[in-house]
Amino acid sequence: MEATHSPVNVNCPAHIHRLPIELLQHVFLLIVNDVPDCPSIFSYGDITISANVDCPPLVFTRVCQLWRVVAHSTTVIWSHFQVSLPGRVEPLKPFLPSLLQSWLALSGSQPLTLHIISGELPVRIPHNRSRAQPCYESSGADSQLLEILLSETERWETVTLSSSIEDWSCNLYTPQLRSLQCRWSELNCFDAPNLSHLHITHRWPLSVGFRPTPTCNNVRHLRLASCSVHVIRSSLTIFPHMETLRVDIILSTPITPAGSITHPHLQSITVPFSWSPYQCELTKMFRGLHLPMLRKLTLIAEPNEWEVTYIMEALASASCDVQALDFVSTIPLSEVDVDIVEPLFSVVREVTVHGELLRHPVI
User: Fold this and answer.
1) What is the tens place of the pLDDT at every residue in 332-342?
2) What is the C-alpha separation between 242 and 12, in angstroms, rounded?
3) What are phi and psi of 223, to 5 degrees?
4) Beta strands in 118-173 (DSSP E)
């Protein structure tokens, strides 16, 4: 029998090892950036917590020695991560805090993109306490991890807080922070002179006052997940340099705001069209506003007759020069009744549906 020859040369390195280091690093970064909500450092079972070794970037270090060396020397892939706080009263074993410290060390001096989630594990109830009795003991495990994270606040650049965290310091100096997602109550914890993008994730109760801080002065782009017209109007005074405002849900209330408000910088507003038995919330929001720089209004609404009527009423109640009105609608542009929308051209210069221009009817 003739000997067969393998096409693989055992003395030649694998093809993947022939990639330039810079290209391999770029591949690592693309994979890490493709992970939703940032790579998670920890993995959780029903009652357990461990290192998340099966996901990037940790998984890169388990392929071969070359990948481990390249991964460890690529600081940027360690600068985006998610930390899930277990919520347990008992402190963690040393390995998990050490893993977080090592992860931060591998990120070098890179600005950090950080997503913090709390309460991943169920709280154990001591045998001598009834389940009906509340447990107010602080989490030793959370405190361990937060202490490590708070030691790096000067590198925080993008931060998302997915739930309320009780162990915050009263004054977190975050000079590089550009983007923040948090609750109203957590915003006051930050001394962030360069914060420009802010996403408030929970409703601000009308009964709870909010005192603006210097951090609010530089916010340019504000998103409110759920709020009333009162909070929207209050935001115009809380954030004096805001340029864009987006609201996901407007909560209806019987209160009709009074008085006038001037905001000299607001250029764009995105809101859902909302009405209640009390009144159209859009009209209540715009009444008495003086917005000299407002140029674009985006409405999550259908371009139907009664919506058009209320939009015109709302814009007539304010002092502004809206040039573009965009409908985010389930109705495609081809099915929009131009005759119904036509009155809007008396108050705005152009009307679009999902960004597609609606032609002014020829008279």
Assistant:
1) 888 888 899 99
2) 59
3) -125, 130
4) 156-161, 172-173
